[in-house]
Amino acid sequence: MNKIVYVLPLLALAACKQAATVDGNPPARLDTAQDKGDAAVPTGIAVTAAPGVAFHYHYGFSLAATRIATAQEAHAEACEKLGITRCRITGMRYQLLGENRVEAALVLKLDPAIAREFGKSAIAVAQQAEGTLTEAEITGTDAGGAISAAESDRARARGEVQRLDGELARPDLRDAERATLRQQRADAAHAADSAVDSAAEARASLANTPMELAYTSDAAVPGFDASAPLKSSLALLIGSAQTTFTVLLGAIALLGPPGLVILLGWLGWRRWGPRRRRPVAQESQQATSG
Questions:
Q1: Which ranges constitute the DSSP H helices of 169-289?
Q2: Residue 109 β-bridge partners
Q3: How many CB atoms neighbour CB 161 within 10 A?
Q4: pTM for the whole thing?
Q5: pLDDT tens digits, residue range 160-202?
Q6: Beta partners for residue 103, in sequence order
Q7: Which of 72, 97, 144, 167 could cross-link 101 (Cys pair, CB 3.0–4.6 Å)?
Q8: Which residues pair with 139 in a beta bridge?
C-alpha cells in the first residue's frame, strides 16, 4: 500500500488553471483559508479530485494557553453537531506542562465528503481564538489500488482452494500426499480470508477520514513564563549554570591531555635543562683542577 503526500496535485492544478471548464465550474482545487491577509493555507482535497484515495488530515495550531481548552471544546462541539454518522471523536488529550505551557489534541473520524469543509471551519475557529495555523499536512493512501489487489489475491486463493479440493477427492492418494494437500488447502483458505480482511480495511479507510487537531501554547520568550517570573527566573538561572558547567567540563576534557603533556615537558626542562646541568659541569672542572 503506497502512501503519498498530496503536494504534487498542487503543481498539476496550477498547470490546468487555464484549462476549459465544464458548465462554467472551475476545476477541482485545494480549498484555502486566509489568515488575516497572510498567504493561503491548504485546508483539504476534494474527494472527487482523487477517487479511491483515503486521506489523513493533520492540523497544528498555536494559541495562548488560556484559549486552547476553548478552541478544543469548540471543535469537539462542531463534530458532535454533525452526528456520529458524519463525525466521531476518537481521542482527546489536554496536558498542562508548566505554569503557562499547554499541549492538547483532538482526533476525529469524518465523512470524507465533509472533511475539507470541516478543516476549513476548524482553522476559522482557531483564528477567532487569536490562534495561528502552524502546520497543515494532508496524506493519502491508494485504497482503491489496495482493494483491487486484495480482490485479485482472493480470487487466486479461492481458485487454489478449488483445485486442491479436486486433488483431495482422488481416491488413490497416499496418506502423506493427502496430508500435504490438506495443509496447502488450509494455507490457501487463510490467504483468501486475509485478502477479504485487507479489502474490508481499505474500504473502511475510504468511508472514514481521520483528522487530528494539535494545539500548542505560544510563548513570547522561550523558557520564560511572565505569569510566574520568580519561578521562571530561577529555572533560567539553573539552566544557565548547568550549561556553564557542561561547557567547563567539555573544555577540561578537550584541553586537559594536551595541557598535561605540556606541563610534564616544562617540569622536565626545569629539572634537566641546560641551566640545571651547568653547575654540575663547573663542579667537575673544579675537581679536575684540584
A1: 175-207, 229-272, 274-289
A2: 88, 210
A3: 18
A4: 0.55
A5: 999 988 888 888 888 888 899 899 999 999 998 998 888 888 7
A6: 95, 216
A7: 97
A8: 5, 56
- Answer for the pair 94, 69: CB distance below 8 angstroms, yes or no: yes
Provide the pairing of β-strand 53-63 with 132-142. Answer: antiparallel
Contacts of 110 (CB under 8 A, 6+ apart): 79, 86, 87, 118, 208, 209, 210, 211
Crossing angle of helices 112-128 and 65-82, in 10° steps, is: 150
Rounded Cα distance between 255 and 19, Å, is 68
Residue 281 falls in which region: left (phi positive, over 0), alpha (psi -120 to 50) or beta: alpha
**Three cell numbers, residue 51:** 477517487
> CA 188 → CA 164, 184, 185, 192, 242, distances in Å?
9, 6, 5, 6, 63
Task: Give the Cα separation of 75 and 119 in Å (integer).
Answer: 10
